[in-house]
Amino acid sequence: MAEVRAEMVANVWKVVVAPGDTVEDGDTLVILESMKMEIPVVAEDAGVVAQLKVAEGDVIQEGDLIAVIE
Amino acid sequence: MFDSVLIANRGEIARRIIRTVRGMGLRAVAVYSEADADLPFVREADEAVLLGPANPAQSYLDQEKVLLAAKETGAQAIHPGYGFFSENADFAQAVLDAGLVWIGPAPEAIRQMGDKINARNLMEEAGVPVAAGTREPVTEPAEAAKEAARIGYPVMVKTAGGGGGIGMGVAYDEESLAKAFEQASRAAARFGGTPAILLERYIERARHVEVQILGLADGTVLALGERDCSVQRRHQKVVEESPSPGITPELRARMLAAAVRAGEAVGYRGAGTVECLVDADAQDFVFLEMNTRLQVEHPVTELVTGVDLVAAQLRVAAGESVTLDATPKGHAIEFRVYAEDPKRFFPGPGKIAEWREPAGEGVRVDSGYLEGNTVTPFYDPLMAKLCVYGATRAEVIERARAAVAGFTVTGPKNNLPFCAELLDRAEFVSGDYDTGLVSRMRS
């Protein structure tokens, strides 16, 4: 199980995956936006998206849980 | 001269404009969003008007609210700074229609230069060199592939209406072209620009060198020297210097003359910048685009020429005649202090726990924040500009090392460690660098 957490304060611009999706290492899970920049958040392991904790438009803080990959 | 100026901007540039406006004995009116209420520019203005929430569309980019603020405070002129409304011809026209003075070029000049395809064609006609590229907007991937084959790879793909490096990408073959085209189209749609794409021949070992121009009230266009902006990450500038260490006096003279022709071609008035790409090996240049506003890095020119560019903008906008001796002297380098990590350059907003600016001979800091302020994720990551002046480039580098070491920022992430690293990088110190420098430092 791998937790994917936010590295910075940001706005969730796009959610690319849904719970239950199979992802590969390097696949984009969500795209954040902060300070006029798009920041893709990628899976660091292959697996299944077990939990997705954010929705488009959410404001998230550094360290917040974005997703859990199993 | 008008007696009051509303500054339709925020952060360091609002503060820098307020300084000159008040120094000239004029009244400065600030406008701000809820997220910026504690920032120094709000306090340093004579009057400040809350526009609305943090989202720029509901505050800094809400035309009606900004014009209403001008009306309510009796401001007679509007200075747009850079970004936001600065290159918005419709807003400039609305300012004029409201009977106010627009501190910038005529809306028509903004419009002509704002469409990069039109600007390229116009410059070519005015005898300013341009890179091989598309003369008409490209809207289909298949068309892009055909044009790229004609121009020859590598090509730069960009949006005709965009700016600030957003959506730009280099393509080396048909496969990477499809990707770059998709990326640029997406950026164009997202940032509300025209959905037109422009392809240009990409120069591999290029320097980004730009010329500061000033169009006077009588129609004369002056060139105030150049700035070398080749230290870039993600096609955005990080460090700028003047004079450029990478061009010969002969090339400089040609570039300055071309920049004057560019300004004259659109009847330019006020401060503007003609951006060029220089082929460092061939000592030749092509026109890239024109920014019809005050540039972030204008202090570099101010330091070497002794000209206050904001004061010159105000005088020109008021129709006053301006005489200045802009002969450059010495050397200046500006470092953009961004709220971003110094390794990958990802944003790192946060509350400022400590903020101590360096002082010393030749050091100028234009900052937008104080200790205790919060750098929020809503706007661009520029926190301050550390500008250093000296008699020679070597002296500036020495002074800059001390200044970077003496600048303390804790709380938000910041790129000061990157600036220190750059100042120890042989390629930068030698002056023989190009726009690939930062990616080489991170590869």
Give a verbal description of the structure.
The complex is a heterodimer of chains A (70) and B (443). The model of chain A has no long low-confidence stretch (mean pLDDT 93). Chain A has strands at 2-5, 10-15, 22-23, 28-34, 37-42, 47-52, 59-60, 65-69. Chain A contains no helices and eight strands. With 70 residues, chain A is an all-beta fold. Chain A has one domain: RNA polymerase II/Efflux pump adaptor protein, barrel-sandwich hybrid domain (OB fold (Dihydrolipoamide Acetyltransferase, E2P)). By secondary structure, chain B is of the alpha+beta class. Chain B has 15 helices and 20 strands. Chain B has helices at 11-23, 40-44, 63-73, 89-97, 107-114, 116-125, 141-151, 174-190, 249-265, 298-305, 309-317, 393-405, 416-423, 426-430, 437-441; strands spanning 4-7, 27-33, 47-52, 77-79, 101-102, 155-159, 169-171, 197-201, 206-215, 221-233, 236-242, 270-279, 284-291, 331-338, 350-351, 354-356, 363-367, 374-375, 382-390, 408-410. In chain B, helix 1 (11-23) links the parallel strand 1 and strand 2. In chain B, helix 7 packs across helix 8 (174-190). The radius of gyration of chain B is 21 Å and the shape is globular. The model of chain B has no long low-confidence stretch (mean pLDDT 95). Classes of the chains: A mainly beta (70), B alpha+beta (443). Chains A and B meet through loops of A and loops of B.
Short structural description:
Chain A is mainly β and 70 residues long.
What is the 3D form of chain B? globular
Total strand segments of chain A? 8
Question: Which shape of chain A, going by the Cα principal axes?
Answer: globular
Cα gyration radius of chain B (Å): 21 Å
Number of domains of chain B: 3
Topology:
The complex is a heterodimer of chains A (70) and B (443).
Chain A: E1 2-5, E2 10-15, E3 22-23, E4 28-34, E5 37-42, E6 47-52, E7 59-60, E8 65-69
Antiparallel strand pairs in A: 1-8, 2-4, 2-7, 3-6, 4-5, 6-8
Chain B: E1 4-7, H1 11-23, E2 27-33, H2 40-44, E3 47-52, H3 63-73, E4 77-79, H4 89-97, E5 101-102, H5 107-114, H6 116-125, H7 141-151, E6 155-159, E7 169-171, H8 174-190, E8 197-201, E9 206-215, E10 221-233, E11 236-242, H9 249-265, E12 270-279, E13 284-291, H10 298-305, H11 309-317, E14 331-338, E15 350-351, E16 354-356, E17 363-367, E18 374-375, E19 382-390, H12 393-405, E20 408-410, H13 416-423, H14 426-430, H15 437-441
Parallel strand pairs in B: 1-2, 1-4, 2-3, 4-5
Antiparallel strand pairs in B: 6-7, 6-8, 9-10, 9-12, 10-11, 11-14, 12-13, 14-19, 15-18, 16-20, 17-19
Helix pairs in contact in B: 4-5, 7-8, 12-13
